[in-house]
Design goal:
single chain; mainly beta; SH3 type barrels; six-stranded mixed sheet; two-stranded antiparallel ribbon; 8 strands; 36% strand; globular
Length: 107
């Protein structure tokens, strides 16, 4: 099953806690470190002012539905896996960004 992700879809951790809203897909530039084939979902939380860059491998396609994206990690896993830290390719500006817009993006 391919999941459609749209700009401003709500994103939740596996334990139901809201993380924020989907904004864009981020792709490291070719040849940057160990990330050349990974895709990341940029999630913005307007309440905390934080941006999160979550690898798309953590999206639970079976539990997600239109407008609501579920992740496979709970709050503890999220904190423990350092998913709150900007990836090095973002900090060094070695990425490309694809806007989700209002059209679906398949993961």
């Amino acid at each position: 099953m391919d999941l459609e992700i749209r700009k401003r879809d709500r994103v939740f951790l596996a334990d139901g806690q809201k993380l924020g809203r989907a904004m864009n897909m981020i792709h490291p530039t070719a040849g940057f470190g160990t990330y050349p084939h990974h895709h990341f979902l940029l999630i913005v939380n307007h309440q905390t002012g934080r941006d999160y860059y979550i690898p798309t491998k953590y999206i639970d396609q079976e539990a997600s539905e239109e407008g609501e994206i579920m992740l496979t990690v709970n709050k503890w896993d999220f904190l423990r896996r350092d998913l709150m830290i900007k990836p090095p390719f973002v900090r060094t500006n070695n990425f490309e960004q694809t806007s989700l817009g209002d059209e679906p993006s398949l993961t």
